Amino acid sequence: QLHSINEVLQDLKAGKPVIIVDDESRENEGDLIIAAEFATQENINFMVKYARGIVCTPMRREALEKLGIQA
Which cellular components does GO assign to this protein (predicted)? Predict the structure, then answer.
């Protein structure tokens, strides 16, 4: 069942993971997303085990520099 953007945003704000899918004519895949402030060891492990993709997070340049990561 597909949900509206507003429903998805409400779920993300409530800490629920959501799956965002693209069009069949593109990659025909889904991305499992959770708001970073709700990321836990358990749900990151779930993503790695079952979504079997790359775990990504956006970061500000200042945070990258603090960690010694080149942007």
Answer: cytosol
CA distance 42 to 39: 8
Residue 43 belongs to a domain: yes
The 8-class DSSP code of residue 54 comes to -
Question: Which residue bears the tokens 């949900």?
Answer: 3
- Taking the whole predicted model, whether its pTM rises above 0.90 is answered as no
pLDDT digits over 33-51, tens only? Answer: 999 999 999 999 999 999 8
| Identity of the amino acid at 15 | G
**Structural domain count, the chain:** 1
Q: Say if residues 15 and 35 touch (Cβ distance below 8 Å).
A: yes
Residue among 52, 70, 53, 50 at smallest CA distance from 61 = 70
